[in-house]
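Worked example 4.2. Below are the chains of a multi-component assembly; read each line carefully before continuing.
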Amino acid sequence: MIQLYNVSKFYPKGIKALSGVTLQIEKGEFVFIVGPSGAGKSTLIKLIFREELPTKGQIYIKGRSIVRMKPREVPYLRRQIGIVFQDFRLLPDRTVFENVAFAMQVVGAGRAEIKRRVPEVLRLAGLTDRTQMYPRQLSGGEQQRVAIARALVNKPVLLIADEPTGNLDLDTSWEIINCLQEINQRGTTVLIATHAREIVDTLRQRVIALDRGKVVRDEYRGAYAHAT
Amino acid sequence: MRRNGWLNFAAAGTTAVSLFVLGISILLIVNANYIAKTVESNVEIMVYLEEGLKDEGVEALRMQIMRLPGVKEARFISKEEALASLERQMGKGSQLRESLGGTNPLPDAYKVRTVEPRQVVSTAAAINRLAGVEKVRYGQGVVEKLFRLTYWVRAVSFGVMGFFGLCAVFLIATTIRLTMYARRREISIMKYVGATDWFVRWPFLLEGIILGGGGALAAIGVLYFSYSFLAAKIQAALAFFPLVNERSVLLQLFEGLLTAGVGLGVIGSYISVHRYLRV
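Applying the procedure described above to all two chains together yields the following structure tokens:
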């Protein structure tokens, strides 16, 4: 599904965000990426999402090099990837329905298709009774679920979440993580960058730990920190 | 578009004001040019013929003058006509003929006009060299000053037009960038969910066209009414004052302004969108 070979990303002024990262993620996996701030988690996500290009190395998604990909092919790559951010990034002047429908309009979906598909994902996200509300009328957890519904609406093969629970309390965070797990069980590969130690330790999923731009640990059924 | 009401209004308003000012400066230039041209075209060469030149010689001279480059017409003015015209200028009470004692000291003459007013000086020099010519007059000195003046009128008016044109571009680009800034969030989300650049771009281009075109139409409306009003006033007060008032000229100006408005809208939004597409 995702393959990185010896990927490095340097920023100006000698900042080495990632150096020599090699890793593989298979279809259907549920992966946590952990590590302190500045370890390179966000950079890794930006590279997979092709928001930025690596300084060195190769990245393949579904067997295609996204490093050699032409800029005009990037939108079609992104349609296969759903993305969720810490700050939700919803449009404040649109309802829940419109926010989710927006992602379908952007990829040129028809009216009928939107009417059928949007309620479907909103049900999956548990937002059926919030359809006509505006983001400011929702709690943080609900807003994040809208963002997840938006990321899912175009049926991506991969869902990336960058600190999805960073702005939420523990109970709400569990709600979001459970939602992501359910999505994973329906066949979507899920990649979560997180600081939420308790959640990572409880779920015992695959954990990739980054520190100062390097993969320091990659274990299945892992914990947030080293098992001692 | 409906969600950024006042900002769009500001953009259209800015376009309208800029194009209005641009339109005014163009009208000023067109009129300044027109006045300059009218004044210039009144410049003519008086060719005084030698005393006692035979009719064949007079006609031969005419042919020679007409053959010179840049000569538009050469009208013969007999000494009789010249005297009659002088009499008219001096008024009824003047006893011109009596004081001249029945003689006519004035020479026959050709009044020569050139195609381009500027050719007057060189043409006059050429005519002066022809046989049978006594003297050539074209308001030496004055004409050169006049040409220098009209040159500066044109230069300054083009400078003014260029300046206001640049102002319009700058104001519109700034306003559209402001509109874009207000919607950068929407644009970045579009890019995140996989919108192509053109999908993001075309509504903004359309918006640019509508804003620029709408602004231009508003400017044209105000310009049309204020100019017709002013032209009528001026014409009533100073009947001889030359003013451009042909529909075709105004129509051309208005077409130009509309094209400029739409063009500015498209260019402005294209440039502004470009910055936010890099996600």
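Take a moment to check your reading of the output against the notes. The interface with chain B takes residues 49, 51, 72, 75-79, 83, 89, 91, 93, 102-103, 106-108, 150-151, 154 of chain A (CB under 8 Å). The helical segments of chain A are 41-48, 74-78, 96-106, 111-124, 140-152, 170-185, 197-203.
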